[in-house]
Design brief:
By secondary structure, the protein is an alpha+beta fold. It has 2 helices and 8 strands. The radius of gyration is 29 Å and the shape is elongated.
Amino acid sequence: MDHRGLAKLLAPIKRGLQMVVARALVTAVGQGRAQRVQVALLAGEAKDGVEHAEPYGFTAHPHAGATAVVVFVGGDRSHGIAAVVSDPRYRPADLTPGEVCVYTDEGDEIRIKRGGELVIKAATKVRIETQVLEVTGEVRDRCDAGGRTMAEMRATYDGHTHGGVQPGSGSTAAPNQGM
């Protein structure tokens, strides 16, 4: 068989392989347990209801304009799966090798840094909903402004005294030390 004959024989296989994976632009995102996205593929091909497969324990609602890698099992374009959706417009670009970061488009992040440091950055507040919060190390208040640890505050509290104490139902003066 000559080169042209072989190319003709392999052409359907080549077309099938080219139909398996596509780069896409997310145009809309649906709500629900199984997130579905609408994507724009090559040459104006649009697909609606493409399942967005996410790793267990992680989920996101991407913005329109995010990019996706869409897989079509067996090259069948009737059912696609968005295997990866990313958005480089918002991705932090300053990670060092080995760092991991969960982030939002507003700049909030949870970053696991090298050397065992965890940094939570939030524009307004961090809210922890739990029955008990246990910390094995120290907790420091206002750490960027010379704040005190909880142990330092406890020592101040345990050692403070009150002036103007009178027997009976009277009140004491304010403590002689602030927390």
